[in-house]
Amino acid sequence: MNNQKTDFTQGSISRKLIAFMLPVLGALILQAAYGAVDLLVVGRFGTTSGLSAVSTGSQVLNLVTFIITQLAMGITVLIARYLGEKKEEQTGSLIGGSALVFSIISVVLFVIMICFSRQISTLMQAPEEAVGLTSVYVRICGAGIFFIVAYNVLAAIFRGFGDSKSPLMFVAVACAVNVIGDLVLVAGFHMNAAGAAIATVFAQAISVIFALFLLAKRKLPFKISKADFRINSQCRRALKIGLPLALQECLTQISFLALCAFVNRLGLEASSGYGVACKLVNFAMLIPGSLMQSMASFVSQNVGAGNEKRAKKAMFTGIGIGMTVGCFVFAFILFKGDLLTGIFTTDAIVIQNGYDYLKGFALETIVTAVLFSMVGYFNGHGETLWVMMQGLIQTLLVRLPLAYYMSIQPNAGLMKIGFAAPAATMFGIALNVAFYIWLNKKETVKGKI
User: Fold this and answer.
1) pTM, full prediction
2) Contacts of 326 by beta carbon, 8 Å cutoff, 6+ apart
3) Based on the number of CB atoms within 10 Å of its own CB, is 411 exposed (0-12), middle (13-18) or buried (19 or more)?
4) Could you say which of 2, 241, 323, 399 has the lowest number of CB atoms within 10 Å?
């Protein structure tokens, strides 16, 4: 491990932040490509019902993936903190205990997704023609949930080390496997949504094997023993950081599922159009998302080293980077969104529905850069309880009620529903600015005592 490259406590903030962020962004792009390729291939070689099934089923899979990613944030933050504090020896028990915790979580998710796939599909209000296919998609993904969980935990470990390139490598291999699997099973064997789900699970399994291989070859500054694989104080500390984030993400993603259900009431074409738009939204949110993940590692290491001033500079640097890129993404989505939705389907009505949602959503690409950089800063400080609170407030009090209100209007359309996202984010920014000011005043008073 190159200590100079992974030491965030010195050197150019923008250069090191971008160098760490780019591989994170690359890995997120490839992860998003899983679902995008599924939709693309099913849209071209499957049926409209299959497209709706993948759209709805992938929302469920996103719920699981995002919750696991946030729960694993505790691992990333603590490993980075220990590196900053020069206490690498505590990492072994952290990884061992976390491995046991996430294995238990995988078993629970396996049972839920296998046994209740039909009920989940119905709860999602999947169109009647697509309920069966949606159920199959959820069940197959549930069968391979262990690999999906393991990948995200391993990625969190690597990022904690300050290594964002290795996760990019093993997800790149998996993405290639997924593309081949989709073409063979969906285009070749006409397995529709089921083929897309099988390809996704198989690809994740390959990524886990490759990740374990890379981890085994790495010269680690600590040892992991059998005694570490138990519920210990280190994994409890990681859960204390990750659980509020996971709870927030769970309720946030459930709100997205509710939003999907609102849209599904508008018909099959609206459901398919929204599904296509969501895949594009996932790509548009990758830069803010990579900033948030990178910021947590960057800030946590500097906090561990006692360099708070540098941690603050990192947050403002991230906001600047994110907003600059966000302006370009905003313009492209707003004016050329129909070209993007047309990549996934040839159905003119579905293309227009997807574009309508994107036009309402477009502003989110700018304002999220501010919000996510601040959230990453607070995560790096371990202020995850606040992150959970502000996320729930903006989601449950603004985004979801506004989206529901728009969906029940006589002239309900996806553009108005889409605007609920940036409206909630702007409210969230106001909350976080207030908390940032309060936190700084608190630290100033503490420093005078």
Assistant:
1) 0.73
2) 287, 288, 365, 366, 367, 368, 369
3) exposed
4) 2
